[in-house]
Amino acid sequence: MSICAVIMAGGSGTRLWPLSRKKQPKQFLPLNGEKTLLQDTASRLRDLDIKSSVTICNEDHRFFVSEQLKEIDMLDSVILEPEGKDTAPAIALAAFHCVDADPLLLVLAADHVIQDSASFKKSVKSAIPLAESGKLVTFGIVPSEPNTGYGYIKKGKKQKNGYQVEKFVEKPTFKLAQEYLNSGEFYWNSGMFLFRASRYLEELKKFRPKIYQACKAAISGITTDLDFTRINGSEFQRCPSESVDYAVMENTSDAVVLPIEAGWSDIGSWSSIWDISKKDESGNASQGDVLVYNSKNCYVRTDNRLVVAAGLEDLVIVDTNDALLVSHRNSVQDAKKIAQHLKNESRSEWEVHREVYRPWGKYDSLDNGLRYQVKRITVKPGEKLSVQMHHHRSEHWVVVSGTAKVTNGDKTFLLNENESTYIPAGVIHALENPGKVDLEIIEVQSGTYLGEDDIVRFEDRYGRLK
User: Fold this and answer.
1) ω into residue 18 within 30 of 0, thus cis?
2) What integer pLDDT is reported at residue 463 of this predicted model?
């Protein structure tokens, strides 16, 4: 038996704004413990003794994927999508990538929570005989409430330890969801699957030949870039966008649903995070430097400063470096609309955090005003920013801790704590950490334009020359 895990790490959800944002969505955040959701998903594979995996993500998130999987020693193959085409093409890329070995593909979303790993492992193992016999298995979550936020699957005739899929149902009204729950014939659609790579491609070719041909052409032109596999972008552009449910699972006669009870949640809102969080005797869940006083059924989270909640009930409070959300728990679905409103207003808070991660480390925008900006830059040991130049701004670097190797024009030299250098506009420069500990500097920018797109790169070890 050979199983290859396919981890779907695309998407840029904003339903958990202000924590989840387009440039750093929820799968790369620690929402249910110390590990990120991606790391939790990958770590779960160890319990199944799965030796290979393919992670699908987009260009913007590639370094999150590689760094987070390296941290837990689970980095394998990473395929970059030039643009999101939904799940049917993404799974097809993974299937074509490993079809020569023709393993079973265990398709998982990177942003789901599974609290009972033992039950999950048991369910996957019980699905293996079905998948080996040619069935396309989807895992149906045994519903615990009439939830209107999930799609549903109606079970049909018994198929070994699963059931033939009678039909897939879109997100229902509350009345219908209650009827589904009472009937005992419906499961929540988890978006997790197990099937043989060749069987998926057979059914995809039968029902969606355009997706099949476009993905086959795209994967035939792959190139390798650092930890990543790049596909043929022009061929992939021709691929239609469609979910695996619509493209294959609703059309095949070999779809089987296997019920699973493993504490699953897609944590699609702050209220769902409250649902799965540990609570005090008054029903309050908190994370960070939080004091809850005389309050009931609240979720309070802070990334930095002290947050005090007093005399409150059924509220969600999420505090980040640059935004604060206060919402009733019944209104948390509006977070996505709020993010869209901020996007329409050209506010940066919908897309990026004040603290921005890069493959070499991170920077935190501490202050800004007319013609100036102040950042705290952290460079990881052995890493280096690109050799670059700015047309419109000059920069002053002050080393706070660590040792900096600086290129400033035609000179290269070392700077230690409390030492500094000034880089005029138009001068080629670079910053590197040659040491064993993090390098921290304060960067003061001044000039007529301070946007991140005023960077001309001449050399970059991470391939970011565009």
Assistant:
1) yes
2) 81
